[in-house]
Amino acid sequence: MKNNTTLKYIIKIAALAAISAIIMLFEFPLWFAPGFYKLDLSEAVILMGSFALGPVAGVLIELLKNLLNIILNGTTTAYVGEFANFVTGCAFVLPAAFIYKYKKNIKAAISGMIASTFSLAIIGGLLNYYVMIPAFSSLYKLPIDAIIDMAKALNPWVVDLKTMIVFAVAPFNLVKGVLCSILAMLIYKRISGILHK
């Protein structure tokens, strides 16, 4: 019986990872951020998986999604983008998953999604400022000023790296968090029976 339960758990994680990897292929830029920041809604699927199966499952789905995306789509960022997507994805799904795990009601789910959206914006901003943009700059021999100029061309509020984080990266992640949360909220109850079966 235990082996059967474990197998079902693994199958659900694999299925959700595959669905989220396919959704990740459909990405689009936002008008106020450089084109290499592309928004996809795969985190909505992972958020629903985290609600149904718990925080550990959320991390595993996030990891598998990025590995599958590398297989399906390759990498154009020397794996910097995939690493960033994994870390920020975990930053998004984990707060909501932990809050919902201990109190399974709509109020807890909404509180969790609000916490997750702010977590995504804050951790995503810090990660970009201290790790991802410097790494991208170093790997591609592209000066940070050139990256800032890309943002500045789209967003007049951007004048340096700090303002790029505040006025481009953080709003990008806030929009992503809000859209994924709304999508998860609209769909979760309809499919929760399947995920819990």
Question: How would you describe this structure in keywords?
Answer:
about 200 residues, mainly alpha, two-stranded antiparallel ribbon, 7 helices, about 80% helix, about 0% strand
Structure description:
The chain is mostly helical and 197 residues long. The protein contains seven helices and two strands; from the N terminus they run H-E-E-H-H-H-H-H-H. Helix 3 runs antiparallel to helix 4 and helix 4 runs antiparallel to helix 5. The longest helix has 36 residues. The radius of gyration is 17 Å and the shape is globular.
Structural class: mainly alpha
What order do the strands of the largest sheet run in, or round the barrel if closed? 1-2
Main beta sheet: 2 strands, antiparallel
Termini gap: 14 Å
Q: How much of the residues is beta strand, in percent?
A: under 5%
- Nearest-angstrom radius of gyration? 17 Å
Give me the count of strands: 2
Principal-axis shape equals globular
